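Researcher: Next sequence.
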Amino acid sequence: MQIVTSWMREGIQQGQVSLVLRLLQRKFGELNPKIEKQIQELNSPQLEALGEALLDFASVDDLRLWLSNRL
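Model: Next structure:
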């Protein structure tokens, strides 16, 4: 049986946030702090979905639209 503590889940989630932000910054350059904050507030399943969806984004507007549909 695997025991996952709340601090482990939080660490995993922070890693997901970090990766998604780095990928988005590489694709679009510096992000608006408001967008970064919205991404930091996503839960793990949402971060996983964003990680997949960002491959199809053509612009930051696509990211904004995705976030507005998720929040």
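Model: Residues 6-70 form one domain. The chain has four helices and no strands.
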